[in-house]
Design brief:
The complex is a heterodimer of chains A (about 230) and B (about 325). Chain A has about 230 residues and is mostly beta strands. Chain A is built from 1 helix and 13 strands, in the order αβββββββββββββ. The chains are: A mainly beta (about 230), B alpha+beta (about 325).
Chain lengths: ~230, ~325
């Protein structure tokens, strides 16, 4: 190769590498709405409460791990249940959350999570009845919790009796369920993880593997934006 | 004559280098000690943080002259002994340096003394600081006065603490994937996601885990103790300043390890008492469902359907008890 050709090759590779760096930096600085994130920022007028509805199921029934326990969320754009646990929410906004709980329960490993914490009013409604503390060692136990550790928010999701729904999405009309509602206020912009504190990854060490350690099952993130 | 001249030059070089080194070292050490040292992390929020800062500053004071000595020598050599400079002395490295008994002996003696002194200093500082904020395991070698009494009372449910009582306050740190919670045996054993401490009080952190290995790291308090399942890892400190501090897990523990942090506060003793009393009452409805206070809790290793189980009848500081040996009946 001639001297000019070698020079052109080096220059070309240099420009390509510069282009890759510029692309990576710009992609990092302008995240937008990542794939798999359900957007709740356009559902209401600015400052108005946002309704967020989820369901918890004992077995998702489809996908790579059909036997895994999971959360699903109702996509506000389509009204359909979606297997996604990352949600984009507006900052400093009241979120009215409804959980359709379809799974059976058990005693909590740490009864601390049997106490409703961090919600507006410090309580939740379980099938329309006020709930502040649930003794997981009695009744149907607690199936899951919805918790945002950074906000010290935690709500026990009481287990159902009877044969639980075997495949998602589960229907209120056909499966035993509990409906829990509560409200909380989103903080300023940022990324906040949420998770279940019941070690419900049955079959995994200490119950915290499998669906507890995989995105889109028993934990996710709140992308809170201005 | 030529030999005498070279010898005089070497002596002058040594004197000049030594003078430069001393001046730079003293000035640098003084500037560091009075200007930068007081602001070095982790601050002075607790005795262990204060002692850690002091130790770091002492090590810096000792190490800085070594750094300056190397740099000064290199700079001096570059300026005065460049190969193109006329009349430079012959190089003094290599065989000449190896055969210089005074140089070799000085090097061995000085470095040995420095290393041994630092080892002794570090050992003393660990003892004086009751473990320097590190976890000492279930049977601490060094503990502050009154700690064993307070810990024993905590397990028996008879622990007391009041403002100006100078009693040690036991606080249990419970790690779980992926959050820290805290139990206060002195106040009915309530559990809280908030770590609130009173000022001017010896704190006995009893750190354990309900699942995998975590590590409790209260950075500004300079307390760091591994949280092991079925182990009670005890660490001590004494609070000295009001303010907020951050708690992080410093042991990679799973998918949400990066989110396993929260903040705590050091309050006045009166404010702490008010908070503890209020929280004890507010949490009473849930506290009665918690297991009785124990140093460790044994989770069901099969995962779900796992309440936690008190680890038998072990007592703190037992030299013979094997902690975590008991298993749940389920």
């Amino acid at each position: 190769m001639s001297k000019g050709g070698r020079l052109a090759t080096v220059l070309g590779l240099f420009l390509v590498s510069i282009g890759l760096v510029v692309w990576a930096v710009s992609a990092y600085l302008t995240p937008g709405v990542p794939g798999g994130v359900v957007n709740f920022t356009n559902t209401q007028a600015a400052g108005q409460p946002v309704n967020l509805t989820v369901q918890t199921v004992g077995a998702i029934g489809f996908g790579a791990h059909p036997t895994w326990v999971s959360y699903l969320v109702k996509d506000p754009a389509t009204g359909k249940w979606t297997h996604a646990t990352s949600w984009q929410l507006p900052a400093n906004t009241v979120i009215h959350m409804t959980v359709d709980q379809f799974d059976s329960g058990s005693p909590l490993r740490n009864q601390e999570w049997g106490q409703v914490q961090g919600t507006i009013g410090g309580n939740a409604l379980l099938n329309g009845q006020p709930l502040t503390v649930y003794n997981s060692n009695t009744g149907s136990g607690v199936a899951h919790t919805f918790a945002i550790p950074a906000l010290n928010l935690s709500v026990p999701l009481v287990g159902v009796s009877g044969t639980p729904c075997g495949a998602a999405p589960c229907k209120l009309s056909a499966n035993p369920h509990n409906i829990e509602t509560f409200s909380f206020k989103t903080p300023g912009a940022g990324t906040y993880s949420w998770q279940c504190f019941v070690p419900c990854g049955l079959g995994y060490l200490y119950g915290n593997g499998g669906p507890m350690s995989t995105q889109n099952y028993m934990g996710g993130v709140l992308e809170v934006v201005q | 004559m030529a030999s005498e001249s070279t010898s005089n030059n070497e002596v002058n070089h040594l004197q000049r280098l030594t003078l430069i080194w001393i001046v730079l070292s003293v000035v640098g050490d003084l500037l560091y000690w009075f200007l930068l040292g007081p602001h070095v992390a982790p601050g002075r929020m607790t005795t262990t943080a204060r002692d850690n800062q002091f130790d770091f500053n002492v090590l810096f004071i000792v190490g800085f002259p070594v750094l300056v000595g190397v740099w000064a020598y290199m700079g001096y050599a570059v300026i005065n002994w460049r190969s193109k400079k006329a009349g430079v002395p012959e190089s003094v490295g290599g065989p000449k340096a190896a055969e210089n008994k005074r140089l070799v002996t000085s090097w061995i003696v000085i470095t040995t003394v420095v290393v041994l002194l630092l080892a002794a200093y570090g050992t003393v500082e660990v003892i004086v600081g009751q473990g320097s904020g590190g976890g000492e395991g279930p049977n601490p070698i060094w503990s502050p006065s009154g700690a064993i009494k307070a810990e024993t009372a905590a397990l028996a449910g008879t622990a007391t603490w009041a403002p100006n009582s100078n009693e040690v306050l036991p606080v249990q740190v419970i790690a779980q994937q992926w959050k820290f919670t805290y139990r206060y045996p002195t106040f009915g054993g309530f559990e809280s996601p908030y770590l609130i401490l009173p000022i001017n009080t010896d704190i006995a952190f009893n750190v354990t885990s309900l699942d995998v290995i975590h590590s409790f790291w209260a950075y500004q308090l300079e307390v760091k103790a591994d949280a092991n399942p079925q182990q009670n890892n005890v660490a001590y400190t004494k609070t000295l300043q009001l303010g907020s501090f951050e708690v992080r897990c410093s042991e990679l523990c799973g998918i949400w390890h990066g989110a396993m942090f929260n903040s705590g506060k050091v309050l006045s003793q009166a404010d702490f008492m008010a908070w503890a009393t209020k929280t004890e009452a507010a949490n009473a409805a849930n506290t009665k469902f918690l297991p009785p206070f124990a140093w460790t809790y044994v989770p069901d290793a099969n995962g779900a359907s796992g309440g936690y189980y008190i680890d038998g009848t072990v007592t703190p500081y037992s030299p013979t008890e094997v902690y975590g040996s008991k298993q749940p009946s389920s």
